[in-house]
Structures are given as structure tokens and as C-alpha cells.
């Protein structure tokens, strides 16, 4: 829920409470003073219900894909990152997690370095869009969290010349982005 909608709800609740209090004690009715002999014992009025606390936002996740052996953003990633940056700046989120991943082609050390570069590319883009650096957390996962699973097994040589394998492993070349809600 956007902050503007939350404020609107709070204002409406306050106005409603004010109207109920006004109806409870109209202006024409005088209150009896405590010194008066005709003080009547009445039950204390029930306080109005407190406004309902806004619902905690759910995490928002998105995936940005990268080309084989690259850490440069694709053209279609910009719109997705623009939307995530705007949602973060609208409020309700504590931080942005950007975790870089790589496919299994190449050495572990190379894939770890490449996945870190991908996460840093996303971080840099979000910084350019106004997200504070203190609110962005990056990490590199290398090839350790594959999403392609066994679907790309036994497809031939695991090298840059095997285009069929490279295409199959596309989902592994990504940055997983999560907007973590404020608790």
C-alpha cells in the first residue's frame, strides 16, 4: 500500500473519530462541574477504536538476466530496475538485496567474480536512480544456485562454443533482486 493511501486512511479515521466525539457531546450541552450537587455517576465513555496499523508490505522480487560471459545490463532490464527503484523510494521497504549468479560454464573462481560484477552492475544502476547506497546489499553466488537444474545435462561440451548449452543455461545468468519490507 502506498504511503499516500495510508495517510488518507489515517486522516479519514481521525475525522470520523472527531465527528463521533462531537455527536457524543453536542456544543449546546453543558458539563456539570465536579463541585455541583447534581453530579451524576455515569460510566466512562469508551475510547474510540485506534486506527488499524498498516499492513506490512510483502517482499518484492525480480530477476534481471545477463548475456553469456557479460555483466552489462540488457535493454529490457532498465524498465524493470526503474520500476523497482521507484517502488523502493515510495517507501515501505528497508533495503534492496541484489544477488548475482552465473551458469556452470567456466571455473568456480571466474563465475564467482562474474556474478559479483553482475550484482555490482545492478547496484550501480539503482544508485544512479537515487537509491541510497546504505540501502543496497549485494552478494555473489557464482554457479552455486542454478535454476536450470538437470534440464541442461548431457548437452555436449561445457564451453563457450556449445550454443545449445549456453541458451539452455540462460536462466542461471541473473541477478535476483528483492525489496525487503520494513518490519
Properties at a glance:
183 residues, alpha+beta, 60s Ribosomal Protein L30, Chain: A, 4-stranded mixed sheet, 4 helices, 4 strands, 36% helix
Describe the structure.
The chain is 36% helix and 15% strand. It is elongated and about 85 Å long. It starts with a helix and ends with a strand. With 183 residues, the protein is α+β, with helices and mostly antiparallel strands. The mean pLDDT is 84. It has a 4-stranded mixed β-sheet. It has 4 helices and 4 strands; from the N terminus they run H-E-H-E-H-E-H-E. The longest helix has 22 residues, at 3-24.
Layout of strands and helices, then pairs:
Layout: H1 3-24, E1 60-65, H2 75-90, E2 93-100, H3 108-128, E3 136-140, H4 163-168, E4 174-181
Parallel strand pairs: 2-3
Antiparallel strand pairs: 1-4, 2-4
Q: How many discrete structural domains?
A: 2
Q: Provide the CATH topology of the largest domain.
A: 60s Ribosomal Protein L30, Chain: A
- Arithmetic mean pLDDT: 84
Total number of helical segments? 4
What global shape is seen? elongated
Query: What's the CATH class label of the largest domain?
Result: Alpha Beta
Largest sheet: 4 strands, mixed
What proportion of the residues is helical, as a percent range?
25-40%
- Report low-confidence residues grouped into runs of 5 or more: none
